[in-house]
Structures are given as C-alpha cells and as structure tokens.
Amino acid sequence: MATRHARTALYIGASDALAERARRIVVAAGFEWEAVVAVDCGVRWRMADVVLVSAADAGQVTLEDPVRRGDVLVLAESSVDQEVWQHCVSLGVEDVVLLDESEPWLVDRLGLVGGGVPDEGLVIGVVGASGGCGASTLTAGLAVATGTGFGMSMIVDLNGLGGGFDLHFGAADWSGLSWHELADISGRISGDSLREAVPSVDGTAIVGFARDYPVYEVPERARRAVLLGARQAAGLTVVDLPTAPGMIREVRPLLDQVVIAGTADIRGALATRVILRYLRELEVPTVVAVRAPGRQCLSDEIYLEVVDCPDDTSVWWLSEIRAIDRRIRAGEPVVRSADRFVGDCRELIDGLHEARRAGRPRRLARAGVST
User: Fold this and answer.
1) How does pLDDT run across 55-71, given as a tens digit for each residue?
2) How many angstroms separate the CA atoms of 118 and 112, rounded?
C-alpha cells in the first residue's frame, strides 16, 4: 500500500483556547501542527495541506490577500458574526466550523485532506441539469459499468423526491436497511458492514429510500457517515444528488468529482450552464455528460458555446436507451451491462481515471471516441 507524506495543518490565529482545541483535533487526525499569526502566513499558506483560520483573525488574513486555494476552513467555538462571513467570501473559504456543534465533522473532513487513504474508492456525485434529464439512469449506468469492469460499486441516493432505484434495477426483493433506519447514525462506520446491511443487486449495493417510510431529507451527520463508509466499501460510489445548492455545498468535501447529467437541447444546455458555473464557484472538479434525445438537439459546437464550457471540463455524449419505458413496464432492469449506454458510462469512468493521471480532461466524446 502507498504511504502518505506527513500532512501539515497551518493554524492562523492567536495562541488561545480555540487554538489549543484545534491543535488537539489536528494532531489526533495525524497532522503536523504549525501555528502563525496572519502577517506571517506567507508561503505557509500555499504549502500546508489544510489551513485553519481563527474567526477572530479572518479579517487580518484578508488584508494579507493570499492566493485562492482549497482546504481552507474558518474555526470558531459557537458562533460568528456577519463580518466574518464576508471575510470568508473574500478568502474563498470552504466552510465555517463551529466546534461546539461540528467537531466530529471537522475530524471526518481532515481525514479527506490529501486525497484520503490510497486504497479507498472514488466517490462521484451526479446532478441533473433539469427535470427528466436522466440523472438517476446515469447514476445506475455508472454503477453497473463499475461493477462489470472496475470492482464493487455502490449507489447512495440523496434525492428524497426521486423515484427510487428499485425500479432501475427491477428488484422484486428489496431487503436491507434504508435511510429510514440509517438516519440516526453518525461518526465512522465500517464500509464492509454498510455494504452487508443495505440492499444489493448484481454486485451493486444501494443506500436509498424505503417507499413505506419516506425520509425526504437525510440528516447531515448521517450523509457524512454513509459517504465515508461507502468510500471504503466500493471501488466507485455514485451519489444521486438533488439539484439543491445547499446539499451540493454540504457534500462537496466528500466528493472526488461531480458529473452533470444534461440534454443537448437549448433548455438542457442553459440549465447545464447555470449548474456548471455554481460548481466552478465551489471549485468542484466537474464533467458534463450529455444525451441527445431528439431532433431538436444542438450541434457539438453550439452546445459548447451555450454551456460556456471551460477548457478544463470534460464533455461526454451518451447513447440513448430506447427500451427504458418497455423495461420499466415489464419490471426489468432499466440498464443492462450489454447496453451501449453502459459502455459509454464505462468510457466515461476510464476518462475520469485518465484525467486524474494525466492532469488534463478528455474533450468532447461520442460513443467512446475522443475528439
């Protein structure tokens, strides 16, 4: 197994009770601790694996005008005023952590700094650009593609108002725990235990919603615990996200990548443009996966112009599954490993791995052929 370098946490603030509390958390999480005042943050700001800023010193750090970077958190004991939030916007801070209520969240978040444990799987979020764009079908397709060539897969359904994944997999026997039973968990859970406890169909474990016991919004602590467990349990975990900015922002630190599911008509292109801009503000690595369901679709060139797609964002074209309605009526799985759509999903996963290795995206692709 590969080993990590010694990770460093830079704390910016006075030597007070908050600093000592933060130091204990950071050291327990396996980081080297370094503390400075704002005027001395300089190059340390760039080099540290994670930066923790005392809320009381956020204004002083803003005056230093440091470069934008990821993994910056502002810490406070119990509350912050509006001025602190303004400084957070200026600094590009990921989140404000109130230790009195969110210390466990900080512990889990520190565990993700530096890419996590090398043998853990990828966690990819899927968000639909608009209603009916096929985000849940894409989620299922990616999971099936993972299971046929990349090891075990898991789906985590966070869209409480969605249709559920029992229909996608044609599962008559849907036994196992759902969010109804998992809503009260918190902290770290075993990935193996999670996989064994939830429904599984053809090698894909699914954390979802029970129709008889709907849970429309999963508590944040339960989402965090399940996503951390899923990372250990599967080679690739696919998270079905609602189109809700607050939810996306909360789970962003737990995701390696987000895939926007869209359609190539003008409505789908404009919706994709909005979500893509939001995700770029959050500094989330993003891929666009596009279906062309009818004759009113835009050409490649016009689609990219409307979406205003940056050069560092991959765009993939996915095949249609013409038999979806018939399969659902017959109670059959919506996606099958032999579908061309699943083959496209497999190519997309390959592209994600390639982009991570090469540090550059694969641009527009149709039916698995890069252009």
Assistant:
1) 999 999 999 988 888 88
2) 11
